[in-house]
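USER:
I wish I could look at a protein chain and see how it folds. I am handing you a single protein, as its sequence and its fold in token form. As I understand it, each token names a local backbone shape. I hope you can help me see how the letters and the tokens relate. The protein I mean follows directly.
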Amino acid sequence: MVNKSIISLILIFSAIWPLSIFYNWPSDYGIYYSMGNLIDQDYRLYKEAFDTKGPAYFFFLKLIGMIIGKGVWQAYISLFITTLLYLTSLCFIINKFVKNDLKKIFLIILSVASLNYQDALSSIAIFQSALCIFSFYFLINSIEAKNIYSYVISTILLSLAIFTRVDA
């Protein structure tokens, strides 16, 4: 019952939070979106347009665009997946360290509340945070289980977080 409640809460909030893109298109997200969609053989990041962010989020947006097409729905789905990754990464950590179901639900509600006053401007930070949290999760698993595969996954995720924003 608790797992279904947590999954429902995460899916509902991940679907609601990006709806702001339909009435308020933030300028930074527009830059991320444009740079991600313009990556092809004739357009090169950091040559035709420069940004201080790494290329990982731009390629993530490009991948979503290749799968579902370009437009406002691509922006919505991208923000939905970004939010879903972030909240799922927090669930992994919470499930790892918290045994009490009531505390789990409380921490998930706090995690959802942490995005209350955020908008699409913070999408790249949310994406980076999800990668960092998943990286730490797999690092902890690699130490506990002495599993080299978890360590490799952790290293890859941390590298992607660094390629999203250097301050990872």
The chain has a mean pLDDT of 81. The chain is about 70% helix and 0% strand. The CA atoms of residues 142 and 150 lie 5 Å apart. The helical segments are 2-16, 27-37, 56-68, 72-97, 101-113, 123-145, 148-164.
